[in-house]
Amino acid sequence: MDWLAERAAQKPNVPALEFGGQTWTYAALNEDVEALAAMLAARGITRETRAAIHLANQPAYVALIHALARLGAVAVPLNTRLAQAELEWQMEQSQSECLICESEQLAHSKRILISELFPAPRQFPARTRPPQREPDAVQGIFFTSGTTGFPKGAMLTFDNHYASALASAERLGVDPHDRWLLTLPLYHIGGMSIVFRAALYGITVVLHPHFDVDAVHHALTQANISLVSLVPTMLHRLLEKYPSFKPSPSLRAILLGGAAAPASLLEKALALKLPLALTYGLTEAASQVATSTPEQTRLKPGSVGKPLNGTTVDIVDPAGKPLPPGEIGEIVVSGRTVMRGYLGSEPPPHPFPTGDIGYLDSDGDLWVLTRRTDLIVSGGENIYPEEVERALMKHPAVHEACVVGVPDPEWGQSVAAAVVLREPCSGETLIQFLREQIAGYKVPRRIVFVEALPHTASGKLKRAEVASGLFQAKTLKILSG
């Protein structure tokens, strides 16, 4: 079923999308999507075509998500903060057959500029619709850091999105007048999932081009927003600038996820009686896995609640044996929301091992203690240390490097690096070098130079010891930085 077309038939005059003072009803958005699909089909995009997208949040991106779905094409959303080399690698790995973007500087043999498709899509003729898409067809390929140090392309199906949307609605409820403020980037599963959920529910998406603390404060106090999805860094910035923040009575849930929320942030938000709904999810499970309602968050701060309906969460020991309530182990997930698999890999194991550490309490509520071994989560962005280390090692002055996350009151974690040099070099030189290799948010905010790095007997870096040394300056002999 085409979810947008169905809503357009049922609720033609209901606002589907708001952006920058403009409003699209479901009927108007559906017309734009139909015309856009015709234009894309004329350019050779058909069923199962892999189309990379490199765009900032804008109405054209929302229309493009629906148009590709209508054609049965596979969306490959690209993080706009990645360096050129990273973008090229992801397009190559996904075998993207075209690139839809707004920059002429991005190279691809079949590049389509979004300016060529908008702003007048109704000038193009209607298109004969393809056969109804299969629920298990792949909707998108979402690159995630995974657990190997290289990004992995998680293949999510329409059924994954559908199951996730239904389960989320059951947990949080749906009001026909809901208005969901969307400030997360649409290239993240957390952002794109809202586009599909809104179409399934028949509610309004209020889209912002990016997170701006003043714009978000205005929306949450003046625009009758009922739902908003934030990462802890966003909420931290909001409460830092507006310490007496009081949202509109229409706001019924702030979904807070993407990274572990510091206890101090939860205390501050709950003291303001904000309706926090803590949530735990992952790209490989189409976003939400477990979510606590605002009422449950007040009763049990820090827990992300029970798994959503249709999703099973277990805690297992290193051998994969289920552990009883209260015992800490790896979080494994199974259910309809779990992806079809990674690009070039066999179907994922069921249950799916997340690499995250936590426990289930006696009520069946989930507590997440560590987000993926060694993974750095900064401002909701996943950063794998080995990727940054590889980039550092490309510099001729670097002999060895160890990258870790250190506590940061605003970002949750910030990136730091301990470096052993083979020849003199400054931290500023290395940072400038990295900015040409990797995305800016992955570049260490602190680089220290050390005599040597600690290793295990098998030669693996002792990251915990390095992190302790960087943060407390105890275990590492820091030369400078």
**What best-fitting shape do the alpha-carbon axes yield?**
globular
User: Which CATH class of the largest domain?
Assistant: Alpha Beta
The biggest beta sheet is recorded as: 8 strands, mixed
Helix count from the secondary structure assignment: 13
Computed Rg: 23 Å
C-alpha termini separation: 57 Å
Uncertain stretches? none
* Total strand segments: 25
- Helical content (DSSP H or I, runs of 4+): 25-40%
Assigned CATH superfamily of the largest domain: ANL, N-terminal domain
Please specify the SSE layout and strand pairing.
Layout lengths: L2 H8 L4 E5 L2 E4 H17 L7 E5 L4 H13 L2 E4 L6 H11 L3 E4 L9 E3 L24 E7 L7 E6 H15 L6 E4 L6 H13 L2 E4 L5 H10 L4 E4 L1 H10 L11 E4 L6 H9 L4 E7 L4 E5 L2 H6 L11 E6 L12 E7 L5 E2 L9 E9 L5 E5 L5 E3 L2 E3 L1 H9 L4 E11 L3 E10 L5 H9 L10 E5 L12 H10 L5 E3 L1
What is this entry, summarized?
With 481 residues, the chain is an alpha/beta fold. It has two domains: 3-370, Rossmann fold (3-Layer(aba) Sandwich); 376-480, GMP Synthetase, Chain A, domain 3, CATH 3.30.300. The chain has 13 helices and 25 strands.
What does this structure look like?
- The longest helix has 17 residues, at 26-42.
- The chain is α/β, with parallel strands linked by helices and 481 residues long.
- The model has no long low-confidence stretch (mean pLDDT 90).
- The strands form six sheets. It has an eight-stranded mixed beta sheet with strand order 2-1-10-9-11-12-13-14, with helices on both faces. A four-stranded parallel beta sheet has the order 4-3-5-6, with helices on one face.
- The termini are far apart.
- It has 13 helices and 25 strands.
- The protein folds into two domains: 3-370, Rossmann fold (3-Layer(aba) Sandwich); 376-480, ANL, C-terminal domain (GMP Synthetase, Chain A, domain 3, 2-Layer Sandwich).
